[in-house]
Amino acid sequence: MIDTTAAHPDVVSREEWEARRSDVLAAEKAQTKALDRLNALRRRLPMTPMDNYRFDGANGPVTLLDLFNGRSQLIVQNFMFDPEWDAGCPSCSNLADSAPHLSHFGPYDVAIARISRAPIDKITAYNARMGWDAPWVSSLNSTYNQDWGWTADDGEVPGVSCYLQLDGQPYLTYSTSGRGVEPLSSQVGYLDSTVYGRQESWEDSPAGWPQTNPYQKTRRHDEY
C-alpha cells in the first residue's frame, strides 16, 4: 500500500477548491476541442490498399477480409505476442481488457480483431485464459507484421490499425503505436483522473508523489 501521509495535496476550503477546479476545467474543455480537431484530421486522412493477408485462425485459415465479418470497417489490435513467449504482453493485455462489449460496435458497422505473431495454439490458450471474445489470429506464417512494422528488428511493436473495405478490397485508413493507443485504455483514463496519476517517473508530479519506472505496476488481470 502507498503511504499517502508522506505527500498529498494541500487542504483548502471548498470555495478555494472550486475556484482551482474551474481553472482545470477550462483547460480540460480546451483539450476536448483540440481532440475534436485532431479526430477531424484523422477522418480526412487518405487510405492505402492492403493485401488480403492470410492468417492462421483457431478453426483454419482466415483472411484479412474475413476479419471484417461482413462489416465495412475493422479495428485491429496488433498485440505483442512473440512466438517464443508463453503469454501475451501485459500492457497489450491491459488494452484488450479495456475493449467494450463487441455488440456496441455493431451499429457503426465496425468489427474488432487481434493479430499476433505467436502460433495459433498459444494464442487460443491465452485468449481462453484471459476470457476475451474478439477474434484473434496468428500472423506467424504471413508477412503482415513485417510488412507493416508490427515486428521490427528488435522485436514486437504494439498498436492499433483501422481498415475499410470497398468492393472486396481492404484499405488501411489509420494506424498508431506506442502511447498513441492510450486513449483506448480505460485504465489510463481513470488513473489520470486521480491525484497520484499513473505513478510513473516520467509524469510531471509534485515532489514526493509516489512514482516508479513505467509499466512496473502493469500485470495481466489474473496476476495481481
In short:
This protein has helices at residues 14-43, 64-67, 90-97, 120-130, 144-147, 186-192; strands at residues 48-49, 54-57, 60-63, 73-78, 110-116, 136-138, 151-152, 155-156, 159-166, 169-177. It has 224 residues and is an alpha+beta fold. It has a domain at 48-182: Glutaredoxin (3-Layer(aba) Sandwich).
Describe this protein's structure:
It is a single chain. This protein has about 220 residues and is an alpha+beta fold. The protein has a domain at about 50-180: Glutaredoxin (3-Layer(aba) Sandwich), CATH 3.40.30. The protein is about 30% helix and about 20% strand. It is built from six helices and ten strands. It has helices at about 15-45, 65, 90-95, 120-130, 145, 185-190; strands at about 50, 55, 60-65, 75-80, 110-115, 135-140, 150, 155, 160-165, 170-175. The strands form three sheets. Strands 1-10-9-4-5-6 form a six-stranded mixed beta sheet. A two-stranded antiparallel ribbon has the order 2-3. It has a two-stranded antiparallel sheet with strand order 7-8. A hairpin with a 2-residue loop joins strand 9 and strand 10. The longest helix is centred in the first third of the chain and has 30 residues, at about 15-45. It is globular. The mean pLDDT is about 95.
